[in-house]
Design goal:
The complex is a heterodimer. Chain A is an all-alpha fold. Chain A has helices at residues 2-8, 13-51, 55-59, 71-79, 82-112, 119-131, 138-147, 155-158, 166-177, 181-189, 194-205, 207-223, 226-232, 241-252, 256-276, 278-291. Chain A folds into two domains: 12-71; 81-291, Orthogonal Bundle (MetI-like fold), CATH 1.10.3720.10. Chain B is an all-alpha fold. Chain B has a two-stranded antiparallel sheet with strand order 1-2. Classes of the chains: A mainly alpha, B mainly alpha. Chains A and B meet through helix 2, helix 5, helix 6, helix 7 and helix 12 of A and helix 1, helix 3, helix 4, helix 5 and helix 6 of B.
């Protein structure tokens, strides 16, 4: 023991002070990191705990449920049309994702690889569409769908996705630009047409970016509130989970414990999706920022 | 290309032009639009909810955006300095971003529920004041800012990626020149990632101009039971403090069906968004390294 301590003692006072400062700094850094991590997790913990309480407990000064009321999750389904809203949300999110991918991949390819008149202008339009607050164009869109008799249905939310989505087009274009042109050139030499090159060469190479775009489209629709509120807000049968949950408390006269149980159920699929595809998420987010 | 050219014209170009046209008309969706000149724009001055909406949205740009961007940067810095468990930390800090906005808002309204929410319960044990949070007109927007800080994951990941991209040699060189940690942050890190800061601020401001869901949900849920869709009973609760510009636009256009006036508000929003973006990109020349504007 003594020998180890002796070797650690530094003959010069300054470096030892520096080291102590270094250790203190490290401790401070770790405490801040841990405190931050706890702060980010605490809301989830409280939401979960409340979802397991009885109504009386949720309003009492106690923070820990006793007994654990697992039947809250059953009650949520029994008291509301949660399954129906989940089905609507899944329909909206699923079809939107298909639409975005089918339409945005070819446009992104045309913007990244093909040479045609007006390409730069088209790119500027895509960028402008990305920056434009959605409320700016919402009135005429609503009028258009109202004239078609689509208000009250999910179609105004789904159909536009089949005509391209600016953010997805931009993200995919940025990724396509990083694929070496030699690949498509050699396919072209073998007599492949542009569609063939896109499907057989570019799409397989761009799988991470396409996965990210698909995930983002799905999440956007799953989480969307403004769109469903606008088009199906008055048509309860076509509500999505967002709209249903926003009206949950007032509509069903439910208590906080059930509201938190429903909130948790609403978050769960997204969280599971994230853990299943974490890599695609992080890659996708990074791609938007670094190239933007 | 042609299907997508059609798509863009139908869902982008045509609505943009039509919004401008409708802003000069009176239109309720039932009868055809009637030309009223500048009446809609003049009415903005008299509309008792227009300027509060502008003020609330301005508050978001001035306080919410800087708070979330700075916080995202600090979190990213913390993760980048972590020796172990950086992956786990990144996941923890990103997770709340995934929570659907309506779910996250409901969760926060409950957490910060006056008196009975967990936050006030804990403050009560500690004999600290128990604020009314979402029920206090002075604290509703700061409470929403806390909610925003919880969900900074996206910007945090982008910051983190760019922080890890800063060449190590720059830090070593600065250290040799005797720069301390703070000086390295200010003179090496910040200039190196300034393009990403610009990106975060521009997208933050554009998002703040569109801020709708959290404000609308917090207002109606905290405002109590009478809030069902469309009733607008507790709009902007408490005391109009969550009545953001887009919330009022939505109310005018799609609850009162004043389509002409809502279009005028949309045009004003467009002009403001454009102006703010241009000012930010112009200013970028002075503080973003190595680029003239973006791209």
């Amino acid at each position: 023991m003594t020998s180890t301590v002796a070797t650690r003692v530094d003959p010069l006072p300054t470096p030892s002070r520096q080291r102590r400062q270094h250790v203190l700094l490290l401790v401070a850094q770790h405490s801040i990191t841990i405190a931050l991590a706890i702060a980010f997790l605490v809301p989830f913990v409280f939401i979960t705990l409340t979802a397991l309480m009885t109504d009386g407990q949720a309003l009492s000064p106690r923070l820990w449920p006793s007994p654990f009321r697992w039947s809250n999750f059953y009650d949520v389904f029994a008291n509301t049309d949660l399954l129906r809203y989940a089905g609507n949300t899944l329909l909206y999110a699923g079809l939107s994702t298909v639409g975005v991918l089918l339409s945005s991949v070819p446009v992104a390819y045309a913007l990244a690889r093909l040479r045609w008149r007006g390409r730069n202008l088209a790119l500027i339009i895509v960028l402008a569409a990305m920056m434009l607050p959605s409320q700016v164009t919402i009135v005429p869109q609503y009028v258009m769908f109202a004239k078609l008799g689509w208000v009250g249905h999910l179609s105004p939310l789904i159909v536009p996705n089949f005509f391209g989505d600016a953010f997805s087009i931009f993200l995919l274009r940025q990724f396509f630009l990083t694929i070496p042109e030699e690949y498509s050139d050699s396919a072209r030499c073998d007599g492949a047409g542009e569609w063939r090159i896109l499907l057989k060469v570019v799409v397989p190479l761009a799988r991470p970016a396409i996965a990210a775009v698909g995930l983002f489209s799905f999440l956007y629709a799953w989480n969307d509130f403004f769109g469903p509120l606008l088009y199906v807000g008055e048509a309860r049968g076509n509500w999505t989970l967002s709209v249903a949950l926003a009206n949950f408390r007032s509509l069903y006269h439910v208590q906080w414990n059930l509201t938190m149980a429903a909130t948790l159920l609403f978050m769960l699929p997204v969280v599971l999706l994230f853990f299943a595809a974490q890599k695609a998420f992080v890659q996708g987010v990074t791609l938007t920022g670094v190239k933007g | 290309m042609s299907p997508w050219v059609i798509g863009f014209s139908v869902f982008f170009a045509y609505p943009l032009v039509t919004t401008a046209y409708l802003s000069f008309t009176h239109y309720d969706l039932l009868s055809s639009p009637r030309w009223v000149g500048l009446a809609n724009y003049r009415f903005m001055g008299a509309d008792p909810n227009f300027w509060p909406g502008v003020r609330n949205s301005l508050w978001m740009i001035v306080f919410f955006v800087p708070a979330t961007v700075v916080f995202a940067f600090c979190v990213a810095l913390t993760v980048s300095k972590a020796r172990r468990g950086a992956g786990v930390l990144r996941t923890i800090f990103y997770l709340p971003t995934l929570a659907p906005p309506v779910a996250a808002t409901l969760g926060f309204v409950y957490l910060f529920n006056a008196r009975t929410g967990p936050v006030d319960k804990i403050l009560g044990w500690l004999h600290l004041p128990q604020p009314l949070w979402f029920d206090d007109p002075h604290l509703s927007k700061p409470s929403l800012t806390l909610l925003g800080m919880w969900g900074v994951g996206t910007i945090m990941i982008i910051f983190l990626a760019s922080l890890l991209d800063v060449p190590e040699q720059l830090y070593e060189a600065a250290e040799l020149d005797g720069a301390n940690a703070w000086q390295r942050l200010v003179h090496v890190t910040l200039p190196a990632i300034s393009p990403v800061i610009l990106f975060a601020v521009v997208t933050g401001v554009i998002d703040a101009l569109q801020y709708f869901t959290q404000g609308y949900v917090a207002g109606t849920v905290a405002g109590g039971g009478d809030s069902g869709v469309g009733s607008g009973g507790s709009l902007g609760y408490p005391e109009g403090s969550t009545l953001f510009y887009p919330v009022w636009l939505f109310q005018q256009g799609f609850q009162y069906f004043n389509m002409g006036y809502a279009s005028a508000m949309a045009v004003a929003l467009f002009v403001i968004a454009l102006a703010v973006t241009i000012v930010l990109l112009r200013s970028a020349r002075h503080w973003v390294s190595g680029v003239e504007g973006v791209q």
